[in-house]
Amino acid sequence: MAPTFDRLAAMTDDDLRAAYDAAAGNTVTGTAFYLDELNRRAFARAGLSAHRLARISAVMACVAVIVAVVAIIVPLLAQSPEVQPCTVVVGHETGTAQCLTSP
């Protein structure tokens, strides 16, 4: 006779394994039993892979944020170039303009 739902829910993993082993000797298994076990294992592996991918994605997102912050801060901390008047030649004409020079 099968246990009640409440009894089954209260059983530990070891209790379930012992009950399974006891019932296994009195039952006949078909191919669906083995296919179900293969599917269960495949789903377990997929869950582990998804968890690993989520961790890698989180690390990559943190690295991207750090790179973005550095890309914003570095130009702000750099010395601004100096502006000096200079002569600009366009064709045959010359004129003055403000030119940027490095410090």
**Overall 3D form:** rod-shaped
Question: What count of structural domains?
Answer: 1
- Percent of residues in helices comes to 55-70%
How large is the share of residues in beta strands? 15-25%
Strand order of the largest sheet: 1-2
Distance between the termini: 90 Å
Counted beta strands: 2
The largest sheet, given as strand count, sense and whether it forms a barrel, is: 2 strands, antiparallel
Secondary-structure class: alpha+beta
What report would you give on this structure?
The chain has 103 residues and is of the alpha+beta class. The chain has helices at 5-10, 13-24, 31-77; strands spanning 82-90, 93-101. The chain is built from three helices and two strands. A hairpin with a 2-residue loop joins strand 1 and strand 2 (93-101). It has one domain (29-101).
